[in-house]
Amino acid sequence: CEAGPVDDAVDWTDLTRPTPAWFPAARLGIFVHWGAYSVPAWAEPTGELGTIDEATWVRHNPYAEWYWHTIQLPGAPAREHHRTVWGDRPYDDFLDLWKAESFDAAAWARLFRQAGARYVVLVTKHHDGIALWDAPGTGTRNTVHRGPQRDLVAELAAAVRAEGLRFGTYYSGGLDWSVTGFLDPEQPLLRPNDAAYAAYAAVHVRDLVDRYAPDVLWNDIEWPDAGKHRGRLGLHELFRHYYDAVAEGVVNDRWGETHWDYRTSEYQHARENESAAVWENNRGIGLSFGYNQVEGPEHSLDAHAAVRHLVDVVSRGGNLLLDVGPTAAGEIPELQRRTLEGLGAWLAANGGAVHGAAPLSPAVATASDEPWVRWTATPTTAYAVVDAAGDVTVRADHDAVDWAASRTPAGTAVEAQPVDGGLALRLPPADGPAVVGFPLAGTVGPRA
Ligand SMILES: C[C@@H]1N[C@H](CNC(=O)CCc2c[nH]c3ccccc23)[C@@H](O)[C@H](O)[C@@H]1O
């Protein structure tokens, strides 16, 4: 589509404000990709975004939520799979086949809280354009009128907030194949930029704000160029309206060069954004965001790997938005549930080193991979997260902490002896990384 009138003379800086403290303190969120694509639930587990060349990626797309796009591509195995299993059924049949018959929002919210998450972000409209609420202008192409015949956004928002967690909404502003068709399947990120689509998307996001007051507005890909302006249905107005309605609301960085509260990376992609003061890595437990029935344990993070990824992200100042892809019936697949439960068990004993924690000043101690050690800190305590058991020596280059007063968050004392250039720890055997806390001498706190 032609690029709309991009009013790049807009002053976006008047939207800048300190990031609401709840967001970086939260550290762990749960992403939920649930849609018509959860019915076929099929993709090739090709690899992680950022590690696969684009030509391979587009035809062997491991994102099951891209099913409608991938089956358009001649030569794509997904196209063959669709023909074999579904014949020539149109993608929209999957909306009517999506029944959500087992969906129990309260059970999901309980699982997410037990996983140690502090916020949940639900996809409300993905690239296929199907809305999980009765979004204006979508006619019956939403889950209120067809398929589940429920306002899934409202149900999950209420359940998540009843568990004391924050609730955010993902909206695909950058792509909507139902409005624009597949502009050029060989250029998957070619997006609609016209004023009509920009108005359509602005009405949707404003409706989400007015009805659900999301704590996070998570846009994907980018905002349509013709919508990047002030004035009614312009993005500047939308952000202003959002902040007036949700004082502690935060927006991510996928609205184009306009405005954001925090930066994002995805799997291994855009990791340069992880040098920002406030950032969030998002990824699936496996290689896909939408449920992919092909995935096995070999493609997925088990609890131990999820703990290590979360701790590594937090030690560098980030949040982890870890995705679950529920089945069309509304079940959390067992492989994903096991990882969430194991992550939650570890956080129940060691969460002090994660929730409300920040990077430790490198003047005090630094990460190592042999043994695997990451450091986090609160204003009073430095935490060594060590993925090894028994006698371990970690590098600790500063006497800013009381090395002798070391203990686990659960309070178990741990033997710690300063040795030349390091610190000798005797760690109890643990199923997963051990955490040892050291009172900070108050002079050198976490990196600002
Ligand atoms: C959460 C996932 N997002 C995918 C789109 N991903 C991207 O556009 C990644 C590119 C990206 C990473 N960090 C950014 C910051 C600014 C703009 C783009 C990106 C979607 O295509 C996918 O289906 C899933 O919803």
Note down, in words, how this protein is organized.
This protein is of the alpha/beta class. The chain is 25% helix and 18% strand. The chain is built from twelve helices and 16 strands. It has helices at 22-26, 54-59, 67-70, 77-86, 93-97, 105-114, 152-162, 177-180, 195-212, 235-245, 303-315, 334-350, and strands at residues 28-32, 119-125, 166-171, 216-219, 250-251, 263-266, 279-284, 318-324, 358-359, 368-369, 372-377, 381-386, 390-394, 415-419, 422-427, 434-439. It has an eight-stranded parallel beta sheet. Strands 9, 10, 11, 12 and 16 form a five-stranded antiparallel beta sheet that branches. Strand 11 and strand 12 (381-386) form a beta hairpin. Helix 11 (303-315) packs across helix 12 (334-350). The longest helix has 18 residues, at 195-212. Mean pLDDT is 94; it is low at 1-5. Bound molecules: ligand ZX5.
